[in-house]
């Protein structure tokens, strides 16, 4: 009976998760008629995606997500290495891991709206700078700008990069590193020839977990972009609200394509699969 | 990075001429390590400082102003008079409770049986997929599928569905932590002593994996309670607490200060629940 229930649940999961996501690609090639899909095939939606205005949104989203991901990688890789191999105290390790996990369960909107009182014209930063006479006029570009969107995205995207990299580095046998040192490899060579290749599955998993959700992020750009920094996630939502379904589906498919390409890269590099990263988690 | 493995220890016993060169963690490496730690803790500070600031500004006279103070409980007081948030809050709590229970029950089913299946790798990826598919994509996919393709009327049931899909991977991971730690031989021993499948589950297995079950339910509740990106698309006419906060926050209305107080209360309650889950999952184990 347990088996039957399990198979039933897998079927439900397939119908309500796998199928809706897979069908996004189908919707993007359909034509619209009377606010519904009609059987005709068309690539008009993709032409619309690369239309002047929306093309800009796509490029901006890729740029912002790419820059934030690069910053996260630059900070997360050394931090994960330090946490996995240099920290001896298991209590400190557990506490840092807990601090990195808690934000998943806290409302992003609440954490984000606070930045308004920090960055606005009368906010903390401007008040402080004015007080110390560093500036004469409040700085305008702190809030409702690409700057504030980048800043707001930084902290929420950090754990998704650190945790997979940490997992893959902590699975590396210390003796491998020790052996490389004994054979006279300088630290840079140990890092480049031993640690990085073995940590690669975790690094790519981190890139997927960080970059792809950033492509679809809606809360931060809307609260801190103030309508001036429009990104793909908000575009998809507003396209659905104005009943332009094929273009919304085409934009979603574009993001899915990037996700698939990253997965393919993970396979090609041969570092195993996402599942392998999670297998390590169980230990 | 000065791990002293067995190779290092063996080397001490060897005559000096065959002793391998031991590169210790030099000053340079230690400095780089400190730099790495600084970067990571900087990001952690960037995560928690806004939460702290939210609390401080919620007791300030002008939450959107630059400086905290003069301190007042006015906004909390206003929450008692302006009670429009109570309805969405109760609705969110109900929805969260249903999502939490559903996550715990179905997560338990999968976590107990998944490790024994041959297709576990592929199934695990399918179940964890909502972790790395952007929320708005899953929301758009479900919206187009349920509303446009199947022509169904959206409402609480579709909100529940979206929340469940989002929370399920977290619940499953919490349960896998405990089910993979469970020693299956205990079940065999109980069977030898004449216990049937049901008794084995109730008296042997469930008490041992209970922390995972409770954490899965709490994770499900919290993730549903705070969810926004998917809810916007699948709400129909339903209103959750995050939707209410969102509407107030984006409307530039005079109610924004109230949102600070409300968000602080929700944040504090969330942190307590997360603390309980973590303690159940990992803390008790370490304490033993």
Key terms for this structure?
heterodimer; A: 283 residues; mainly alpha; MetI-like fold; 13 helices; 2 strands; 75% helix; globular; B: 288 residues; 2 domains; 12 helices; disordered N terminus
**Main beta sheet strand tally, sense and closure of chain A:** 2 strands, antiparallel
Number of domains of chain A: 1
Q: Spell out the CATH superfamily of the largest domain in chain B.
A: MetI-like
Overall CATH class of chain A = Mainly Alpha
> What is the succession of H and E elements of chain A?
HEEHHHHHHHHHHHH
The second-level CATH architecture of chain A is: Orthogonal Bundle
Percentage of residues in helical conformation of chain B: over 70%
Mean pLDDT level of chain A: 86
Q: Spell the H/E element sequence of chain B.
A: HHHHHHHHHHHH
Radius of gyration of chain A: 23 Å
As a percent range, the share of strand residues of chain A is under 5%
The backbone outline of chain A, from C-alpha atoms, is: globular
Radius of gyration from the alpha-carbon trace of chain B, in angstroms: 25 Å
């Amino acid at each position: 009976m347990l088996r039957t229930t399990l198979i039933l649940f897998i079927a439900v999961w397939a119908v309500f998760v796998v199928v809706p996501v897979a069908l996004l690609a189908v919707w993007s090639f359909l034509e619209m008629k009377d606010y519904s899909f009609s059987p005709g095939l068309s690539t008009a939606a993709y032409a619309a995606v690369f239309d002047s205005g929306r093309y800009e949104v796509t490029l901006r989203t890729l740029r912002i997500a790419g820059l934030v991901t690069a910053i996260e990688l630059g900070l997360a890789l050394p931090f994960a290495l330090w946490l996995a191999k240099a920290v001896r105290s298991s209590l400190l390790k557990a506490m840092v891991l807990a601090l990195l996990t808690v934000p998943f369960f806290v409302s992003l909107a609440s954490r984000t709206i606070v930045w308004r009182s920090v960055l606005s014209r009368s906010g903390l930063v401007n008040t402080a700078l004015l007080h110390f006479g560093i500036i004469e006029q409040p700085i305008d570009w702190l809030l409702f700008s690409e700057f504030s969107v980048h800043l707001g995205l930084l902290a929420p995207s950090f754990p998704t990069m650190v945790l997979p990299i940490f997992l893959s580095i902590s699975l590396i046998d210390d003796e491998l590193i020790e052996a490389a040192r004994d054979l006279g490899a300088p630290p840079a060579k140990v890092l480049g020839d031993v640690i990085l290749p073995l940590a690669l599955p975790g690094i790519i998993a981190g890139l997927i977990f960080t970059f792809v959700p950033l492509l679809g992020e809606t809360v931060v750009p809307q609260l801190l972009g103030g309508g001036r920094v429009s990104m793909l996630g908000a575009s998809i939502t507003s396209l659905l609200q104005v009943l332009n379904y094929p273009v919304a589906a085409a934009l979603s498919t574009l993001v899915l394509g990037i996700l698939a390409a990253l997965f393919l890269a993970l396979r090609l590099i041969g570092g195993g699969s996402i599942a392998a990263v999670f297998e390590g988690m169980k230990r | 990075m000065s791990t002293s493995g067995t190779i290092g220890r063996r080397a001490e016993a060897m005559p000096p001429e065959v002793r391998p060169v031991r590169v210790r963690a030099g000053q340079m490496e230690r400095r780089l390590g400190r730099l790495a730690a600084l970067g990571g803790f900087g990001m952690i500070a960037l995560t928690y400082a806004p939460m702290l600031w939210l609390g401080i500004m919620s007791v300030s006279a002008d939450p959107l102003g630059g400086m905290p103070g003069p301190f007042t409980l006015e906004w909390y007081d206003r929450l008692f008079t302006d009670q429009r948030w109570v309805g969405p809050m109760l609705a969110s709590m109900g929805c969260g409770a249903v999502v939490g229970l559903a996550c715990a029950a179905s997560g338990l089913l999968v976590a107990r049986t998944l490790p024994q299946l041959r297709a576990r790798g592929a199934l695990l990826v399918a179940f964890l997929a909502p972790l790395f598919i952007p929320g708005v994509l899953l929301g758009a996919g479900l919206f187009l599928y349920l509303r446009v393709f199947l022509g169904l009327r959206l409402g609480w049931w579709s909100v529940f569905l979206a929340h469940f899909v989002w929370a399920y991977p977290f619940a499953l991971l919490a349960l896998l932590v405990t089910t993979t730690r469970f020693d299956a031989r205990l079940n065999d021993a109980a069977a030898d002593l004449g216990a049937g499948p049901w008794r084995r589950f109730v008296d042997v297995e469930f008490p041992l994996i209970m922390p995972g079950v409770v954490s899965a339910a709490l994770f499900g509740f919290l993730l549903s309670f705070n969810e926004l990106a998917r809810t916007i698309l699948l709400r129909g006419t339903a209103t959750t607490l995050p939707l209410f906060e969102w509407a107030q926050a984006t409307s530039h209305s005079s109610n924004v200060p109230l949102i600070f107080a409300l968000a602080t209360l929700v944040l504090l309650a969330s942190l307590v629940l997360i603390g309980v889950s973590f303690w159940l999952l990992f803390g008790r184990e370490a304490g033993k």
